[in-house]
């Protein structure tokens, strides 16, 4: 493998990994606030992408359609929390997981009814020619995805560390009972967590669609990969799940490029098993469980 191919695989992997990282942050936000693993997270990707395409087809300007699609998806996340998750919050973890899987199937079915099976496309958000560096070709949309990931990480850092709501979310995550005694409404924090995670999913779908087709079933596998990224990175660390997502994307790109895309998923999940066997807390989490 020459250097240009190495660089091309690396760029592709980091692009895919950035999407996995955003989804992993959504998983982490909900899990650390409510203790729920939301396996419907990937469907927010589908809703965000296809809603944007539909709004543009109705005549809205692209950026207005993007903002409105993110808001609509976030509101769907809020509705799901209030109508489905909150009434079942006192049930077992297994029951909640089954509920979120059922939500994933339901949302996928609604996507099929609304948008059909025909793949939809979205024109690039950054519409400039590809960039060639040392034999590798960089799609400007990839650079846009990296930039979005960095900006969102900075925004989330400011939100969680510098705002009252962010501090309340962190308190609800670390000790829900103590947070309740301090006057924090943990039910409201749960709703905010689902809303934020849905918005992150929508953003992921919107920025990845110009590189691939959007379909009603696009969210399932991406959502699973986001969950895998969270487990690999560490389920108590934002920086860890970002690193987990990027690493997962790079492994997937190199396995597809060097071997075959047929084996890339098997290699990815095989790597997950190795992590679970030898470092179940995650590769980038501190052994003490302290958040980084």
Helices and strands in order:
Layout lengths: L2 H32 L6 H17 L4 H24 L7 H23 L15 E3 L2 E3 L1 H23 L1 H11 L1 H6 L4 H23 L9 H16 L4 H21 L2 H18 L14
Antiparallel strand pairs: 1-2
Helix pairs in contact: 1-5, 1-6, 1-8, 1-9, 1-10, 2-3, 2-4, 2-8, 2-9, 3-8, 5-6, 6-8, 9-10, 10-11
The major pleated sheet works out as:
2 strands, antiparallel
The span between the termini is 36 Å
Order of helices and strands: HHHHEEHHHHHHH
Radius of gyration: 19 Å
Question: How does the overall form come out from the CA principal axes?
Answer: globular
> How many distinct helices?
11
Global mean pLDDT: 86
Helix content: over 70%
Percent of residues in beta strands:
under 5%
Q: What structural class do helix, strand and pairing data support?
A: mainly alpha
Write a concise keyword list for the protein shown above.
2 strands; single chain; two-stranded antiparallel sheet; 292 residues; mainly alpha
Structure description:
- The chain has a domain at 23-220.
- Helix 1 crosses helix 6 (164-174) and helix 2 runs parallel beside helix 4.
- The radius of gyration is 19 Å and the shape is globular.
- The two termini are 36 Å apart.
- It has helices at residues 3-34, 41-57, 62-85, 93-115, 140-162, 164-174, 176-181, 186-208, 218-233, 238-258, 261-278; strands spanning 131-133, 136-138.
- The protein is an all-alpha fold.
